[in-house]
Specification:
The protein is of the alpha/beta class and 265 residues long. It contains 12 helices and 8 strands.
């Protein structure tokens, strides 16, 4: 499939460079204003939610880094990204993917917009979980949920196109969701805004309990998630946290000291 050629309504002029990945400096109010403008435009746009783990992966994968840097908005979904910005004298607002999704749902619930959710098959939250949660929390919302493997079939793409959505949420997790959007958005002509949301809907469905607010404020949400995880998932979560907290920090410090002037791709 042809790769998307985005014509940006808003370019990432106000950004910080973290390991070669551009991060938006816009606060939540400005981000939501841009989203409303995106939805009222005749062009396609996409939003990414880089956290330390995503940035770390992109720093070792130029193809993925290029995709991230094509985004119209790249919000910092991770306290580590905010801290990294402070060392560069950049005030990066932290806006989690879970919070962003809630805000988008609120501003679109009573509008004409149709939302499509492409949910990963065998993910924590099923199609039914998401439908029940959204119907309960946003009764006026127009949406449809499709379940798919990461390798999305042409039949699923036809169903999405038939629904004619304005907004596309892709819950495949990084880097698969961003790659899907980049490679397929121009084949879903009706979509004005696409967002890679990872496991954000798992919080809405209650499959994952969100950390208490105090943990989020002090940037210790990762510790809460380790405590909540069980069995093999605890080991998997611990490895991810190790990469996001330890490996990312060391790589950023090294980059900050020796590759300060690296350009984004």
């Amino acid at each position: 499939m042809a790769k998307i050629k985005l014509k940006h309504l808003f370019m990432l002029k106000s950004t910080a460079n973290i390991l070669g990945v551009k991060i938006s400096l816009d606060n939540k109010r400005v981000v939501l204003e841009k989203i409303i403008n995106f939805l009222n435009s005749d062009k396609q746009h996409f939003i990414t939610t880089p956290n330390p783990e995503i940035i770390l992966y992109a720093s070792n994968n130029n193809e993925y880094k290029k995709i991230l840097n094509k985004a119209d908005i790249a919000i910092a979904d991770g306290f580590g990204v905010k801290l990294a910005g402070l060392t560069l004298k950049k005030n990066i607002p932290r806006i989690t993917g879970a919070d962003l999704i809630k805000d988008i749902l609120k501003i679109t619930e009573n509008k004409k917009y149709k939302i499509c959710i492409l949910n990963r098959k065998k993910g924590l939250s099923s199609v039914e979980d998401i439908e029940i949660s959204l119907n309960s929390a946003y009764p006026q919302l127009s949406f449809k949920v499709f379940s798919s493997k990461i390798d999305v079939s042409s039949e699923t793409l036809k169903k999405i196109n038939s629904y004619n959505p304005d907004i596309l949420f892709v819950a495949f997790g990084a880097p698969n969701q961003e790659k899907f959007i980049f490679n397929n958005l121009n084949n879903i002509k009706s979509v004005k805004l696409a967002v890679g949301i990872g496991g954000a809907f798992d919080f809405l469905t209650g499959r994952i309990k969100r950390a208490p607010e105090i943990f989020r404020i002090i940037g210790m949400e990762w510790l809460w998630r380790i405590f909540q995880a069980k069995g093999k998932r605890k080991l998997w979560r611990s490895k991810r946290i190790y990469n996001a907290v330890i490996v990312f920090s060391f790589k950023f410090i090294k980059w900050r000291l020796f590759k300060k002037y690296e350009k984004t791709i």
